[in-house]
Specification:
- GO terms for molecular function: N-acylphosphatidylethanolamine-specific phospholipase D activity; zinc ion binding.
- Keywords: Membrane, Transmembrane, Transmembrane helix.
- InterPro entries: Metallo-B-lactamas, NAPE-PLD, RibonucZ/Hydroxyglut_hydro.
- This is Membrane protein.
- This protein is of the alpha/beta class.
- It has one domain: Metallo-beta-lactamase, Chain A (4-Layer Sandwich).
- The strands form three sheets. A seven-stranded mixed β-sheet has the order 8-7-6-5-4-3-16, with no helix packed on it. A seven-stranded mixed β-sheet has the order 9-10-11-12-13-14-15, covered by helices on one side. It has a two-stranded antiparallel ribbon with strand order 1-2.
- Helix 7 packs across helix 8.
- The longest helix is centred in the N-terminal third of the chain and has 22 residues.
- The radius of gyration is 20 Å and the shape is globular.
- The N and C termini lie far apart (60 Å).
- About 1% of the residues have low confidence.
Length: 367
């Protein structure tokens, strides 16, 4: 009788989880049959999943590794988030596209507002409280406010997404942004999430690796990254992930998205480098999942591989998604950049960086 009750309970729990993941909008939507037919033509799609060309280990590849990770997360690290909320620099809405200069404004983590050649792009605009399908239970953002609230933003020409993880693609942010955005340019399969959230199909362009799109005078190229995707237990690697190459009349920018270190960086550098500025992931790492999130020293090497001039470290200073001290990513990048002669910008959240400028923010503000 006890075994029967346990079995019934497990069935009920599984059914409840399936219902929630199917009908709760934050989980997004799987591609339709017609959409899957298009996706399946990708050279990066094998046996119903997207893959990186080289073997890539996930964090849960062994029971021992999974247990040690769980134990460390339960134990916690009191230095994994700042002792006091971070206070971003204010971004005046009227200053956006005020000049024709290429300007980068970091919103924390990987969210970046990019102004180039009179065009405004928002890269991975995760502007929500927590990187979770249930924001009220997830780890809160380090700052209580944004450089500028979504309601105050002017029209955004395009949103570029690197993949569909919650710390990059946020349901609440997209719902608030969608009517301000002219186009959503995303990796294969990600458009299904956006359509469920009310973005019209006409405003979505899905890209495979190395696909190029001309938009508002810019050339946008989806490039490889070594990562994975998914928003639930049932959709691992059903959508593509990517980095982005953004080319204007005189400026080239590389946005790494999320990635472990791999040969794709050198390939990107050979095909499209040099870059005036790179936006490179440097945080939420651990040696146990280094294949999907670079260590900071690898971040600097990746910048060198793509032949970057100026680097801004991203994917830190907003959320705790690993066990390291919250300042470790930028401090390790700072040291590695100095050792390799890499020019580094370390802006506060909301502090603008101008590509090609002789002076860029470089103070260790986190200390």
């Amino acid at each position: 009788m006890t075994l029967i009750m346990i079995a019934v309970s497990l069935v009920v729990l599984a059914a409840a989880a399936y219902i929630v993941m199917t009908f709760y909008p934050a989980f997004g939507r799987r591609a339709s049959r017609k959409e899957k037919q298009i996706i399946s033509r990708s050279l990066n799609y094998k046996d119903g999943k997207f893959v990186y060309p080289a073997a890539t280990a996930m964090m849960e590849n062994s029971a021992g590794s999974s247990f040690s990770i769980l134990k460390d997360f339960i134990k916690g690290n009191p230095r994994s988030r700042p002792p006091q909320p971070l206070i971003p620099e204010k971004l005046l809405p009227g200053s956006i596209q005020e000049s024709g200069d290429t300007r980068v404004t970091w919103f924390g983590h990987s969210a970046v507002l990019l102004e180039m050649d009179g065009v405004t792009l928002f890269l991975d605009p995760m502007l929500g409280r927590s990187p979770s399908p249930f924001p009220f239970v997830g780890g809160r953002r380090y700052s209580k406010q944004l450089p500028v609230e979504i309601s105050e933003l002017p029209r955004i020409d395009a949103v570029l997404l690197s993949h569909d993880h919650y710390d990059h693609l946020d349901y609440g942010s997209i719902k608030q942004l969608k009517d301000k955005v002219g186009m959503f340019i995303v990796p294969l399969g990600v458009g299904a999430h956006l359509q469920r959230w009310g973005v019209s199909r006409e405003k979505i362009r899905e890209q495979d690796w190395w696909d190029e799109i001309q938009y508002a005078g810019l050339t946008l190229t989806s490039a490889p990254a070594r990562h994975f995707s998914g928003r639930s237990l049932l959709d691992r690697n059903s959508t593509l992930w990517c980095s982005w190459i953004i080319r204007g009349a005189e400026t080239k920018i590389f946005f790494s998205g999320d990635s472990g270190y791999g040969p794709h960086f050198a390939e990107i550098g050979e095909k499209y480098g040099p870059f005036d500025l790179t936006l490179m992931e440097c945080g939420q790492y651990d040696p146990r999942w280094a294949d999907i999130h670079m260590l900071p020293e690898q971040t600097v090497q990746a910048h060198l591989d793509v032949r970057g001039a100026l680097m801004i470290p991203i994917h830190w200073a907003a959320f705790t998604l690993s066990m390291h001290d919250w300042t470790d990513p930028v401090e390790r990048v700072f040291s590695a950049a100095k050792a390799h002669g890499v020019r580094l910008a370390t802006p506060r959240i909301g502090e603008p960086v101008y590509a090609g400028s002789a002076e860029v923010p470089s103070l260790a503000w986190w200390k």
